[in-house]
């Protein structure tokens, strides 16, 4: 037994010291074992989480691979639309430069703006309102017959209608005044 406990003599005190030493070593080994077990559990949890994350990433990767073909088709569509838009852009810029050159040829200046055009339109309406009675008079002359004698006859007819209208108006006024008395 002394060989087993690694002691030189068989005294009781030596045995007690050896047993205490063994007890200390046992406690140290148990603490070490508990620490290793705790680290092992932590590693096991970490490994489980890593495996579930890997599974999730594999599933996501598979979904993304499945989405590749529709996305590629959509990208081709966008690429085609982009090419069309670029050609339209060039066309619009060409039209813009053509319109700008045309405006320069006709004398457009930046001073001709919306406000100026509105002002000119209002002035035009004022002129139309002022010239409308004159224009109506001139048009009434077009209703006259081309012959001078017929024109004189038409003028006499209009004068007669005018005097008849005055007479009718005078009669109405007289009757209105007479009925109020």
Automatic annotation (TrEMBL):
GO terms for cellular component: cytosol; HAUS complex; microtubule; spindle. The keyword Coiled coil applies. One of its GO terms (biological process) is cell division. It is found in: Cytoplasm, Cytoskeleton, Spindle. InterPro entries: HAUS1. It comes from Cuscuta epithymum. It comes from the Eukaryota. This is Uncharacterized protein. Keywords: Cell cycle, Cell division, Coiled coil, Cytoplasm, Cytoskeleton, Microtubule, Mitosis. Belongs to the HAUS1 family.
């Amino acid at each position: 037994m002394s060989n087993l406990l690694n002691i030189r003599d068989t005294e009781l005190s030596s045995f007690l010291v050896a047993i205490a030493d063994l007890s200390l070593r046992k406690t140290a080994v148990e603490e070490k074992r508990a620490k290793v077990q705790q680290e092992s559990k932590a590693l096991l949890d970490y490994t489980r989480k890593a495996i579930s994350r890997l599974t999730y990433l594999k599933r996501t990767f598979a979904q993304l691979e499945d989405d590749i073909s529709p996305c590629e088709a959509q990208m081709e569509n966008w690429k085609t639309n982009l090419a069309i838009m670029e050609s339209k852009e060039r066309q619009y810029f060409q039209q813009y430069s053509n319109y700008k050159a045309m405006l320069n040829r006709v004398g457009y200046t930046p001073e001709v703006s919306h406000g100026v055009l509105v002002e000119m339109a209002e002035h035009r309406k004022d002129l139309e309102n002022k010239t409308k009675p004159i224009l109506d008079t001139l048009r009434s002359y077009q209703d006259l017959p081309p012959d001078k004698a017929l024109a004189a006859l038409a003028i006499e007819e209009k004068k007669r209608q005018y005097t008849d209208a005055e007479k009718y108006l005078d009669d109405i006024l007289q009757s209105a005044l007479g009925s109020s008395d």
